[in-house]
Task: structure prediction
Amino acid sequence: MRHIAVVGTGPAGYYSAEAAQKLFGEDVSIDMIDRLPVPYGLIRFGVAPDHQSIKNVARRYEKVALSDNVRFVGNLTIGEDISIDELTDLYDAVILATGAPEDRALPIPGAELSGVLGSAAFVGWYNGHPDHNEVDPPLDGTHVVVIGNGNVALDVARILSKTPDEFAGSDIVLHAYEQLESANTEHVALLGRRGPHQIAMTPKELGELGRLERAAPRVDPNDLPEEGADALLEPGMRKSVTFLREFAAIPESFRADKSIEIDFDFFAAPVRIEGDGKVEQVVVERTELDADLRSQGTGETYTIPASMVVTCIGYQTPPIEGVPFEHGRGRFANDEGRIMPGLYCVGWAKRGPTGTIGTNRPDGYAVVDLIAEDIGEGAGKTGRAGLDALLVERNVDVVTFRDWKKIEEAEADRAREGSPREKFIEIEEMIAARS
Ligand code: NAP
Result:
């Protein structure tokens, strides 16, 4: 019997478990460990609450979770309740699928001012992540600056712009729904340090900005390259740029009915955030692209008002004591997923924060091939029985998948009309809902 522990129960974790089941059949026992009492990581806490169809992939993970040789062990923190060394002693293979839940820091003066939030905090706040319940975004001001030109920046701009009606069918948590309802946002500036051909926004997500009830996007036609140059782009990117061209052509009469403007500010790198105790404005430097398409400052600066700033410039994986880490890239040091024989990583913890949910599937399958090479038939480790003995000894109260199903049911029961669930946002509430 091979014993595998997967740390983290988001997409990368479940695809790895699925792959291990496929390859090893009944000769594997898999424990899926999460520090939270609820599974699915990014699906629950990262995917936007108004993108419910993307969240349906959790049904596939549930199938894996419900099979006999897979078990969910929630509310168990590596580094607190149990160390990595203890885990690698108990299991033939430990797979770190811990994602990249922390913000990359924006290295400019003023980034520490009150009212400057990272996307992990802001997204975690509207998605009910227990780590970010206390975030109190200053939504009473009119001007929000969103830094970054990726899909997270789009999520943030869209969530800030939607009317309460547009959240119908979503699972945005009540505190965020209510605070957004009374927000005073009039202007969302999306700062991109490069140009329209360098955005990291996918067409479906970008297109949504053009169909909002009370908000309209604005693109300065002068920022767009010659239309002929779009032919050189790969098809997805070309489609995204076509949306930007459509936004640039929106007539002023259409904007007249809209109370929020989402302004694409290209070739704009933030150099300083200013304010007296809290954010008031962002100093931005005009940029141009060098021969390698990197942004270079031109020396020309200007100032934009900001009552709140959300940085959406990527994420990083938190290091775990004793596990080699690549600090520059914010991920575990690994060779194609192998950290060392017996210890592996997948998903964002392996690659850094890029790619879609589906990108994690091949990662999971590839790492299980490495594991098969390294561990053979297994080394007679104790696996789940050993973990259970240790948990009893340490009096750790873990949450099972059956418990999760009760929590899930309780969240569905208390949902607002039309919503699939009202998430519990405190760990204690989640744990209490299982009984
Ligand atoms: P991302 O796609 O890597 O975009 C990060 C953006 O931040 C880039 O535009 C980057 O510009 C900019 N940036 C980085 N450092 C900066 C700095 N110091 N100053 C100014 N700008 C800076 O990251 P993300 O938006 O966090 O998304 C993470 C992953 O999740 C992506 O793969 C994304 O597609 C995925 N995702 C998908 C969906 C969806 O499919 N619906 C939703 C959300 C996220 P440069 O290009 O110039 O570096």
